[in-house]
């Protein structure tokens, strides 16, 4: 019998907390609404990432906003992985990210508690942003490889 998934709660990034951001911040409130509306989000007994949206930063840079979801039974930290995503067209793949190295260090993200999610972003080029607009369930290519993290005892 599969255990029922508990709803996920948003967790403040350590870097945001250091800058005076709170869970009442608009972005955190929107993400909290998203995870509350999708209680099945994330992979049971694993850490997973979920792309949310292409957003523009205050500095005018385009970034892809993600949430990282800890559905393990222990807190985790110092997460690293390579992320690939692209669009399949005519037998080839146009990449938005090709083995992009992502590091969610403890100094940036903190220790992610079980049943919690954190936001993070990856910068996107103009071409990458255009490709994301063309992406569908049928033509998308997504890979998360060489993932490592530390369990907190």
List keywords for this structure.
alpha+beta, 7 strands, globular, three-stranded antiparallel beta sheet, 153 residues, four-stranded mixed beta sheet, 4 helices
Write a structural description.
The chain has about 150 residues and is an alpha+beta fold. It has one domain. The chain has four helices and seven strands; from the N terminus they run E-H-H-E-E-E-E-H-E-H-E. The protein has helices spanning about 15-20, 25-35, 105-110, 125-135; strands spanning about 10, 45-55, 60-70, 75-90, 90-105, 115-125, 140-150. A four-stranded mixed β-sheet has the order 1-6-3-2, with helices on both faces. It has a three-stranded antiparallel β-sheet with strand order 5-4-7. A hairpin with a 2-residue loop joins strand 4 and strand 5. The model has no long low-confidence stretch (mean pLDDT about 95).
- Count of individual helical segments: 4
Shape: globular
The major beta sheet can be summarized as: 4 strands, mixed
Q: Compute the CA-based radius of gyration.
A: 16 Å
Briefly summarize what is shown.
The protein has 153 residues and is an alpha+beta fold. Helix content is 20%, strand content 44%. Strand 2 and strand 3 form a beta hairpin.
What's the helix and strand layout?
Blueprint lengths: L8 E2 L3 H5 L7 H12 L9 E10 L5 E9 L5 E14 L2 E13 L1 H4 L6 E8 L2 H9 L5 E12 L2
Parallel strand pairs: 1-6
Antiparallel strand pairs: 2-3, 3-6, 4-5, 4-7
